[in-house]
Amino acid sequence: MKDAITVRNLKKEFKAYSSRSGLKGAFRDLLTRNYKIVPAVNNISFNVKQGEMVGYIGENGAGKSTTIKMLTGILTPTSGEVIVNGMNPHRDREKFVSTIGVVFGQRSQLWWDIAVQESFRLLKKVYKVSDEQYENHMAHVIKTLDIEPLLDKPVRKLSLGQRMRCELAAALIHNPPLLFLDEPTIGLDVLVKLRIREFLKEINEKYNTTILLTTHDLTDIEALCERVVMLDDGKIIYDGALKSLKEKWGEGKEIEFQFLEEVELADLNKITASSEVKWEKDEKKAIFTAVVEEDDELISLLIAKVVAALKIKDINIKETSTEEIIRNIYDRGIS
């Protein structure tokens, strides 16, 4: 399988200017400015295969948006190599833009004062999409995203959720093999998010569309991506399977028990004495929590022992969320 994206030793540096103090300093600033070089993306390398859905994650200022801007040809790298869809995004700009779709959650590619379908027609001409191609592809996109009732409305009259669905449709008018999504579900309600996620899964399966997704909503990543690339301070600190990340840095599982009878921590410690388990009690809710390693056999044995000894009202198994794992990695560092 060929690579949709190849990044080698990519670096982007910016000049950060500082002002001198006082009137004298202001005059000197007119002639020469003090500055220091700040690396936004610092020597990163990664590949994305055609058809992959990859989550590109990191805290604010980690370098995510700067990377996306270099991959889409908006910014020129300071050094390093970027090949996307077999082209240099900056050098082959005119040919390159017809092979990608881009959705920035904070910026619109639709014209604000005209009807949505007029924006679609303009983009159809820009991308030189034939009437037949447009009808075949966009009829499905419009139906799946449920935007037909919105086509005659000016963009300024749409809610955020309606606009984002139209933005996604606009990015797919030319059915590009590669889609960049930068915070596509920011500020959206749960139902709209679910619809967008289902749609992205569908186009990935139907057209083998490659998707690179940056988001702060880690439920988007969990729903769509098997692989994550994690950025911190301009450097990649993890590149691999989301499942492996959870297995390696997840802090076990929590099994919550509610009982039909009076139970003390001492009773539970006695019942599970031979198992490696730590018991905690929530006095208000009368919930007892067993904290154990993520081992299916150990968990099954623990539950069997407790069920055999006590009358159970309810059991709930919780695993460490991706959000908690990633927060822990940023707080404590990866090792």
From TrEMBL:
<keyword id="KW-0813">Transport</keyword>
<dbReference type="Pfam" id="PF00005">
    <property type="entry name" value="ABC_tran"/>
</dbReference>
<protein>
    <submittedName>
        <fullName>ABC-2 type transport system ATP-binding protein</fullName>
    </submittedName>
</protein>
<dbReference type="InterPro" id="IPR003593">
    <property type="entry name" value="AAA+_ATPase"/>
</dbReference>
<keyword id="KW-0067">ATP-binding</keyword>
<keyword id="KW-0547">Nucleotide-binding</keyword>
<dbReference type="GO" id="GO:0005524">
    <property type="term" value="F:ATP binding"/>
</dbReference>
<dbReference type="InterPro" id="IPR003439">
    <property type="entry name" value="ABC_transporter-like_ATP-bd"/>
</dbReference>
<dbReference type="GO" id="GO:0016887">
    <property type="term" value="F:ATP hydrolysis activity"/>
</dbReference>
<dbReference type="InterPro" id="IPR027417">
    <property type="entry name" value="P-loop_NTPase"/>
</dbReference>
<feature type="domain" description="ABC transporter">
    <location>
        <begin position="25"/>
        <end position="258"/>
    </location>
</feature>
<dbReference type="InterPro" id="IPR050763">
    <property type="entry name" value="ABC_transporter_ATP-binding"/>
</dbReference>
